[in-house]
Amino acid sequence: MARRRQIYEGKAKILYEGPEPGTLIQYFKDDATAFNAQKKGTISGKGVLNNRISEHIFTLLGGIGIPTHFLRRLNMREQLIRQVEIVPIEVVVRNVVAGSLSKRIGVEEGQQLPRTIIEYYYKDDALGDPMVSDEHILCFGWASQEELHDMADMAIRVNDYLSGLFAGIGIRLVDFKLEFGRIWENEFSRVILADEISPDGCRLWDMASGEKLDKDRFRRDLGGEVEAYQEVARRLGLLPEDGDTPVLDLDSHRKLRGK
Ligand code: TMP
């Protein structure tokens, strides 16, 4: 079989040319980075879990009318996605003070915010993804007024839905990061949800114990990264209750055996 053409390699994922025009294959690596890749490591099995968790969440969001790039899972580490032009803005949604917000304003982590905050960061590794305002985004043309409005609107809907979903499984959705991409239909474009939603880009705290079930375990050298990601997958119903084998193995095996 001819080697697939690699389109892009990021810190946690690789994009390959897809089987049809307008599609790509998104491969989830086990690599983990933090602090703009100053800290590097691997979390063995993370890619498999994030592929499955992101598929699950994007499918649910699609079901409430949020357009996403997700098309279908291909195997344990890969999913077929729509090719988009990534908007160079990371949209961060915060419900609780944590991370960089805690540092910036000097408020202890864990304080519930009286209203949800949306922040924008300009995607530029060389600059360390600086925080920017909507004024900068419009002024420098990184997104249009309409796109900004659509992204903020979807971010709030995603937050409302996911806050409830996670609360239902005993997890507090503290904050998370979204990325959006443009798709073109004739001469018109619109933005859809892209990238991934997984414990790599969310803060997820167990409601009872406060335990961190996300990438802060890696960022802060807490250990137990895979166990935390597995716990999230298990509570979402994606792992057998008493095991650690992703359910996806079962159906890819079933397909292989032609059943
Ligand atoms: P922060 O508190 O470090 O700004 O992070 C806010 C949220 O965004 C947190 O859930 C982690 C996520 N995030 C990413 O997914 N990628 C990044 O590069 C950064 C800085 C944060």
From TrEMBL:
Matches recorded under PROSITE patterns: SAICAR_SYNTHETASE_1 (PS01057), SAICAR_SYNTHETASE_2 (PS01058)
GO cellular component, as recorded: cytosol
Enzyme nomenclature, EC number: 6.3.2.6
Chemical reaction(s) catalysed: 5-amino-1-(5-phospho-D-ribosyl)imidazole-4-carboxylate + L-aspartate + ATP = (2S)-2-[5-amino-1-(5-phospho-beta-D-ribosyl)imidazole-4-carboxamido]succinate + ADP + phosphate + 2 H(+)
Gene3D superfamilies for this protein: ATP-grasp fold, B domain, Phosphorylase Kinase, domain 1
GO BP field: 'de novo' IMP biosynthetic process; cobalamin biosynthetic process
Protein name from the UniProt record: Phosphoribosylaminoimidazole-succinocarboxamide synthase
Organism expressing this protein natively: Stakelama sediminis
Gene that this polypeptide is encoded by: purC
